[in-house]
Write a structure and sequence with these properties.
The complex is a heterodimer of chains A (about 80) and B (about 190). Chain A is mainly alpha-helical and about 80 residues long. Chain A contains 5 helices and no strands. The N and C termini of chain A lie far apart (about 65 Å). In chain B, helix 2 (about 10-35) crosses helix 4 and helix 4 packs antiparallel against helix 8. The radius of gyration of chain B is 20 Å and the shape is elongated. At the A-B interface, helix 1, helix 2, helix 4 and helix 5 of A face helix 2, helix 3, helix 7, helix 8 and helix 10 of B.
Amino acid sequence: MTCKDAIAVLADYLESTLSPDLVEKLEEHLRDCAPCRAYLATYRKTKSLTADAGRVEMPEEMKARLREFLLRQLREGR
Amino acid sequence: MLLDRAVAGDVGALEALMSRHSGRVYRLAYGIMRNQADAEEIVQDVFLTLVRKGGGFEGHAALTSWMYRVTTNVALNKRRGKRRELEVSLEEHLPTYTEDGHRDGDRSYVLADWSSTPEQAHLSVETRKILENAIDGLPDHYRAVLILRDVEELSNDEIASIVDDSVGSVKSRLHRARMALREQLTRHFGPGR
């Protein structure tokens, strides 16, 4: 397996959807390839940083406006 | 059902419905739009569509799935034609290889492993800004898939159904989006810093 082949299957590897045969080939490649080990570690970290950055909360005043907006729409629709 | 009661004017039911779903609708809308004002407009659109539509959902899962689909479609439609100039070519952020398939580039760069950099650096305002800009710069359909998978943690099958595309295409966009973000973070954390 080359670096190109290894990087192409990283997402499937992290989701545990790779075939056992490919897992074996990838892990063998990773044992011998420091750049791909670094790639995998930073790819995995990118995923977790993205999840952290995306966890935004809806502001309270926006929730209040949504509530008022929907109540008004429901009243007018009746 | 909660939705029927909300449509009939039950304020408590409407509040329960909002409390159950508005957070995720907002998160997804913000994730795709990248600003609060547009995200708020989308949340209002989605809930208005929901109360006008009324019932017809078979259970909580069907309603949640409908919410994701409508939010994604409304957001992508709204994004169409907007801020395209900010989108960067993904190609420049993808790894390059030598002819025999090995990583190409400066040795210290391809060996850069910043994954165990102290947590406060990962959470710093500067890092956050780099990541936010990188996410902003993704093409809309890539960003939508990334948010649905890595923030909302939906399965690739669910995402394929939401964006009306094949699982293969969803997986490809997701992988390329993550690689593009990883590259930009590596330039930030990597050698020379």
